[in-house]
Amino acid sequence: METSYLKTLELDKIIARASEGCVCKEAREQLLALEPQCDPDEVRYALEQTDAINSLLIKNGSPRFGGVEGVSSLVARGDARPWGAAHYRWPALCATFRT
Asked: Are residues 57 and 97 in contact, defined by beta-carbon separation less than 8 angstroms?
């Protein structure tokens, strides 16, 4: 995968700044481990998920996640998808929202 554009876009800085808002260690680690996707179907799916969570946050407000710890097993269970999209860890990413 061509990655020269990542430096121009400063993706590492964006991810680092987003990780500052994580309230649990596991979510921060998963966020820092994210890599760009090349498969158009996976990108489309991720954008749909982002749109869905954004709509829920606008409608219902941000949930409070103070003191969240040990969510790795829950994330793994929630991540069991028949199509094998193991890199989408929305339960953990949802824990990154700070109110």
From this structure: yes
